[in-house]
Amino acid sequence: MKETEILKTMETGDEKTREDRTGIEEKPQLPAIVHDYLAGRIRKRADKYAFAAMLKRLEGEARERGIPIVSPEVREYLRFIAENPQIRHVLEIGTATGYSGIVLADAIRRRGGELVTIEKDGGRAREAATNFAACGLDNVRLLHGDALEWIPALTETFDLIFIDAAKGRYPDFYAAAYGKLRAGGLVFIDNILFRGYVCGVFPGRYKTIARRMGAFIDALYEGEDDFALLPFGDGVGLVRKRDGTS
Question: Which of 8, 73, 144, 163 gives a 20 to 30 Å CA spacing to 119?
């Protein structure tokens, strides 16, 4: 079957062809009623957050301007992890306009935590700085520039590293930041499934990135640290650094 035919099959939901192609019967998606229930619970919880109005505004701007931000379910899980009392020092690679950074900084500030966040795009970095200031978050250190240039200069050891930037550079970001992670610390990697393209079916223009991301996932599974691949949002990868690894 040609690549274009497979893509069309995936879009139209031809179950028979998908089963023939993979050799494994695909599990059905969550019923709409379950999805709506979960979405409603997430919205109600988010309404109680500090800076809820700011987050809603940034969500609207993201939709209008095509700014990449985390999905609601990923935001919830990210906050849940950052609320862990053992997490105080967080590194974020890919600030955008500050949406996930606000969530992270708010989660750790009550115990004196600090967020270091890096954004390459100058315009977005300026917007993020304005948004952090509007929230009164004084525990954020925003760095403008290439993360691969900034990371080696950082002297801190981090409890949590959040990667959500240029997908084709994920392996490089991970390799550069790994040495800054304490033993037992977590790396949270968003969009690791890259629109599902890592599964082997992708438009030609994404071939290099999709294959590189797939190889990255393989390396994480084969590495010495604990790795979990979670199928929500656009895929979340979690790495827990074991003692003795560097």
Answer: 73
